[in-house]
Amino acid sequence: MRKPELVCPAGSLPALKSAVDQGADTVYLGLKDAATNARNFAGLNFDQNTAREGIRYAHSRGRKVLMAINTYAQAGDVARWHKAVDTAADLGVDAVIIADPALLHYAAKTHPQMRRHLSVQGSATNYEAINLCRDLFGIQRAVLPRVLTLPQVEHVIANTDVEIEVFGFGSLCVMVEGRCLLSSYATGESPNTAGVCSPAKAVRWVETPAGTEARLSGILIDQYKQDEPAGYPTLCKGRFAVNEETYYALEEPTSLNVMSALPELMRIGVAAIKVEGRQRSPAYVTEVTRTLRAAIDAAFADPQRFAPKPAWEQALGKVSEGQHVTLGAYLRPWK
Description:
This protein is an alpha/beta fold.
């Protein structure tokens, strides 16, 4: 049984340092070059100076840095994505996380010494797809979409020599990653092309006598009472009127939390456990990294008697979306 890497998000330099200080084995980041990574929000991501400082900080402490270049290059603008790969190589990251097959080909051809990971945005849910990317592009790790059961994850691992990384904590998506069309339906932009889900320029908050309306490109996504905390408007997690009832018609806000399944993830050979949240605060990164570091170490030391501590559950509950957690697709008792 192997101890999986703890892979944590870094949307900013303070978040990167927090993750490293709290025990992350690996951090992942993106560049401030608009559309080449799927967390393209104002105030997030790294220019070359902050990236160099962050990489130096992590490497000096024996940690690894991955760069997400996980959107799909657009016709007529491919050079921007090629430049991002070249920048990653120049900065000395430990691996690039790529979804676009053409970009994987470019990275393998131009920088063969740099590790290549298949992004979750590549939407590979079976070992055949993963092995094809290994044979064609030399990938050494694949991040699985959050739609597989644990037995299905085990089946993938048993049939490939590519390292498998799974999500362990963070916001869930109703879509198979890499195949979302909802945000582009409303705004003309999607995480796969422009690096954003619900771009900030399309978001409007409207104060009304009944409370605050959250709108996306004019579409009413939700309405909050005066004292009700408001979530960031996304189509998949909005409340809509359906047959005279108003509720979360597509997906209720909740967070994935695999803490109780850590021994099983280790048994089946998961190489890395990833935390979602480059768009979140350094405080979120600190809390989640510290808690999962302790839990993973405890589960590896004594998997037979491992049980999540109430303090760990409470700590992660405080930073969970909607204050709810789930094992998601990993556990389907009806299947």
